[in-house]
Target: Metallo-dependent phosphatase-like protein
Amino acid sequence: AQPHAAKPIAAPMRDLKWGKLNFLHTTDTHGWHAGHLQEPQYSADWGDYVSFAEHMRKKADDRGVDLLLVDTGDRVEGNGLYDASDPKGQYYYDIYREQDVDIICTGNHELYIASTADREHKYTVPNFKSKYIASNLDYIDPKSGVKKPMAQRYRKFQTKNQKLDIVAFGFLFDFTGNANNTVVQPVRETIQEEWFQKAMREETDVFVVIGHVGVQMREFKDIFRAIREQNPSTPILFFGGHVHVRDATSYDSRSFAIASGRYMETIGWMSVDGELRKSEDEAALTFHRRYIDNNLYGLHHHSGLNSETFPTEHGRNVTAMIAKARKELELDYTFGCAPKDYWMTRTPYPSENSIYSLLEEEVLPAVAINPKRADVPRLVIANTGAIRFDIFKGAFTRDTTYIISPFLSVLSYIPDVPYPAAKKVIKLLNSAGKIVADAHLENEFLAIPEQLSIKESIIYDTPESSDLFEAGDLQKPLGGKPIRLVEGYTTRDDIGDDGDDAIHSNINFYTVPNCIQAELSLPPEGEPETVDLVFFDFIQPWVLIALRLSGAQYTKEDVQSYIEGTFTELMAGWIAKNWPAKC
Ligand SMILES: O=c1ccn([C@@H]2O[C@H](COP(=O)(O)O)[C@@H](O)[C@H]2O)c(=O)[nH]1
Model:
């Protein structure tokens, strides 16, 4: 863990079950490779994960079974370790490559900005060579303009100990927001391609499909159906991501799928036991999943080691690389001190502890001002997906600015929009589904990814944060004494409610709207004739369609820059001005 990270915290534990084929899975790490410095249950770092994987590989060797590491993309954007350098990722690519990942693919965040996709192609693809798979992604060479696969389309290999044949694919969901130097082929088209049709007919013991795709999403189900049609009994294992939730399901009795959360909070574990070889008769398989908290105590527990014996030399070196990068990037520089916690989904919106209320009532009114139009009435719309994490009471650092808002979002506007049309926009953006059926603009892409999976608030009857836990059969830390549970994941997936490795008390989840709106400089009485419609540039396509539906025709030529600077910079400036400098 990093030098100033919160000390790890004990929790009652569920053990891992080993099978013949075992996996460790990361997804949507979004640059959090230093771990969560303020949260003890997730404060291990990428160096600790390197140590953990080395110990677990040794255990696999000792048992004569196999362990593979998988990563399903969105490794970038979301934390100062990636975002604070210019160019971005100056330290991250070298840190990330220290983990020996066996199967890796691309997420949408590697593709939003052309320079990010260029760096993915220049660094991560060659860093992982034959392990990087791009089944439905092409890259356009900036010099020649030639389109070619981002990496190989699939991978066939044998496992180390049992020599099991594996055919692996690496997909991205049908993403359409990529920069123009990449091409994402819709999954339904890819599975018709000749290469895929041949690959799924390869003789193999197991198919492994990794993807930056939620395990409940149509794309994975289509791939499953295509492979299963040709291979009635071959095990098919899916590793998904994108939705930022812990989730698992099985599409039939010989398939299994896991998604392993977000932000280095979770290391997923999947194991398969039973007869895996293709030549044997079909016998029942058993699948097991665990969501391992990225908590050093847990990693010690699962590897059977302690703080002395756990860190490997390699792991320590990676931890030191991260610490050096954080120092050089001045990520601990403090803009101000948050007076209390502000939550994305732990409290209702609107409420005094909602980060969206803070934005709507305090930050946007103060920063969304164009000096030349300061008195012009305006509606300022932000998509809730632009905010990526909670604010904790205490130091708000350079790192925090990227954690809260990593995007290069700027404020755009259309001047003098008739108010009757402008006021309808927020309602349309917050309605379910697509605002125009054929525009491929799902409104849910405006909100936080978790809401792709969680459609309704989850409110527990009794908050159990003060519960004392008597562990029963479970592994008890601290010599078996009852302990106070820490708030954290209490996952319920299609397999049951026993997936989390650590037992936590519940956290409420209140769903939030797709967008929020600050109404500024409106007349005290009556309605203005026109307003400036100000919005985060990311949501421009949705805003233009919503205006059209409201009877006001505008095109992208009508959109102008409202104010200099990214939202991230504006927010940091507001904090420096409004929150005390010392904590
Ligand atoms: O410039 C941007 C890019 C993305 N968003 C929001 O993020 C989600 C996607 O996040 P994932 O981590 O890929 O799931 C997208 O739906 C937007 O809500 C943004 O606001 N600005």
User: Anything to note?
Assistant: Residues 74, 108-109, 112, 242, 383, 385-386, 407, 409, 445-447, 449, 538 surround LLZGTKA7 (CB under 6 Å). The two ends are 23 Å apart (CA to CA). The first strand starts at residue 21 and ends at 26.
